[in-house]
Amino acid sequence: MQLQGKAAIVTGSTSGIGLAIATRFAREGAKVMLNGFGEKDAIEKLRRGLADETGVEVRFSPADMSKPAEIRAMVAEAEEAFGAVDILVNNAGIQHVALVEDFPDERWEAVIAVNLSAAFYATKAAVPGMKKRRWGRIVNIASAHGLVASTQKAAYVAAKHGIVGLTKVTAIDYANDGITANAICPGWVLTPLVQKQIDARAAAQKIPVAQAAEDLLREKQPMLQFTSPEDLAALALFLVSDAAKTVTGATYTMDGGWTAQ
Predict the structure, then answer these.
(1) Selection from 3, 182, 175, 171 nearest residue 86 by Cα
(2) For residue 193, what pLDDT is reported?
(3) Helices and strands of the chain, counted as H and E runs
(4) Are residues 13 and 96 in the same domain?
(5) Are 89 and 111 in a shared domain?
(6) 124-131 mean pLDDT
(7) How many whole angstroms separate alpha carbon 137 and alpha carbon 242?
(8) Which element (helix H / strand E) includes 168?
(9) What is the DSSP string of 114-125?
(10) 74-97, pLDDT tens digit by residue?
(11) What are the pLDDT digits (tens) for 149-196?
């Protein structure tokens, strides 16, 4: 129970990486504010199930991460309900793929808003309380694309590079206020969304699903193995623990060697 007595917000946590992190934090004793999109009844079942399993308070905010006012309201709600926001995990993200010349203006704005600006607004809202209590942990989920690029991902790559920069500045700004800020850069993570990509590739090329998965990995990673959301949750747990109290401004890759090349 490393996080007993702490409270966390994890954005984009109704599925995938965010849900794995929120689940691990709750199992370690932290009160958790979930956030994300999805069917209302399914989210309530998820929230209630996590609360029942862990015995901690679990809430849900439907805040739209593209809207600063809703982000501020989410942080304020968590502070009122939990008494503090000790941990902030900026995980929410969306994607759009197109050549720069074909990239729709509205999709650029949306990707930057959700993947980058949301992290800034959430951090800005959470930091004053952390600073007052002289304890805070901020973990930004970036990507291998925060360090390197891939074709047709202008907005996503720009946003994730921005997240790495925001992480470093936040770490420096609050280095002596008991607050740390770090970024995690995953490579290929086996989420339901990625599994759909694999299945589609297998169907289109008429090859086994296992071969399609290996081909996908081989395009980027020397290590032909997916990272799991639970692997990333374990790293996030370390970064918010007391053992990492002097780890700040760091970028942790968990990418099967992708960015080592």
Answers:
(1) 3
(2) 82
(3) 9, 7
(4) yes
(5) yes
(6) 98
(7) 10
(8) helix 154-173
(9) IIIIHHHHHHHH
(10) 999 999 999 999 999 999 999 999
(11) 999 999 999 999 999 999 999 999 999 999 999 999 999 999 888 999
Main-chain dihedrals φ then ψ at residue 167, nearest 5 degrees? -60, -45
Query: Is the whole model's pTM more than 0.85, yes or no?
Result: yes
Q: Is 68 left (phi over 0), alpha (psi -120 to 50) or beta?
A: alpha
Determine the Cα–Cα distance for residues 78 and 7; give it in Å rounded to an integer: 8
- 172 and 162 fall within a common domain: yes
* CATH code of the domain containing 86: 3.40.50.720
Closest CA to 227 of 119, 121, 143: 143
1: in domain = no
Active-site residue flag, 156: yes
Q: 121, 156, 174, 252: which is the annotated catalytic residue?
A: 156
Q: Is 191 left (phi over 0), alpha (psi -120 to 50) or beta?
A: beta
d(CA 24, CA 222): 28
Indicate if the pLDDT at residue 129 is higher than 90. yes
Structural domain boundaries, residue 196: 190-226
Distance between CA atoms of residues 89 and 12, nearest Å: 9
